[in-house]
């Protein structure tokens, strides 16, 4: 708000400077040199005020930027604080000994599974593999459900209709 007020003040002074300069010229033309000199002194003073105002605006903007950056830093520090608290809670829940125990148990389980895999891989003979393939074929055949074929012969001719042959039948179906 203060920055905006200073900017308005600058605009007012700038307009006043232009008006006083024009007035000083007019006074010089009229021969009133002392009055023109007084206006030029006033103008010079206002220019100095304008420079001071510009410096104040600069300082205010720098301060606003510093405040905004400090707010960002505070948020970062707060995030780091929360993260640190989280890590400390996790460290309390899980100790180094606990992690080492879990890693050891996992390695033991992996080794045990590897031993089982070696036993299974080495125990199958060629006869066992043939038996397995035959069982797979049997299961595959069982899963194929084919419709039953009718036992009585199909009629050659339906009374009142022409005999249909396969190509004609397909044409009728497609129509």
Set down the secondary structure blueprint.
Elements: H1 2-30, H2 33-93, H3 96-123, H4 126-143, H5 166-174
Helix pairs in contact: 1-2
Main location: membrane
Keywords: Coiled coil, Endosome, Membrane, Protein transport, Transport
Coiled coil: 28-70
What report would you give on this structure?
Residues 28-70 form a coiled coil. This protein is mainly α and 175 residues long. It has one domain. The protein is 83% helix and 0% strand. It has five helices and no strands. The chain is elongated and about 135 Å long.
Helix fraction? over 70%
Our estimate of the beta-strand percent is: under 5%
Global structural class: mainly alpha
First-residue to last-residue Cα separation: 84 Å
Radius of gyration: 50 Å
Main β sheet profile: none
Instruction: Estimate the mean pLDDT confidence.
Output: 81
Count of domains: 1
Number of strands: 0
Low-confidence regions: none
Comma- or semicolon-separated keywords:
single chain; 175 residues; mainly alpha; 5 helices; 0% strand; elongated; Snf7_fam; membrane; transport; protein transport; endosome
In short:
The protein has 175 residues and is an all-alpha fold.
């Amino acid at each position: 708000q203060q920055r905006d007020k200073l900017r308005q003040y600058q605009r007012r002074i700038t307009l006043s400077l232009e008006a006083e300069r024009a007035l000083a010229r007019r006074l010089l033309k009229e021969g009133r040199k002392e009055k023109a000199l007084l206006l030029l002194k006033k103008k010079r003073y206002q220019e100095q005020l304008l420079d001071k105002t510009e410096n104040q605006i600069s300082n205010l903007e720098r301060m606003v930027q510093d405040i905004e950056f400090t707010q960002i830093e505070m948020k970062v520090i707060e995030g780091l604080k929360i993260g640190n608290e989280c890590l400390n809670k996790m460290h309390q829940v899980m100790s180094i000994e606990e992690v080492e125990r879990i890693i050891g148990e996992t390695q033991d389980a992996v080794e045990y599974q590897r031993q089982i895999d070696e036993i299974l891989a080495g125990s199958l003979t060629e006869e066992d593999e043939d038996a397995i393939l035959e069982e797979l074929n049997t299961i595959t055949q069982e899963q194929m459900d084919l419709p039953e074929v009718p036992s009585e012969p199909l009629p050659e001719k339906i009374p009142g209709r022409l005999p249909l042959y396969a190509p004609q039948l397909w044409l009728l179906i497609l129509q």
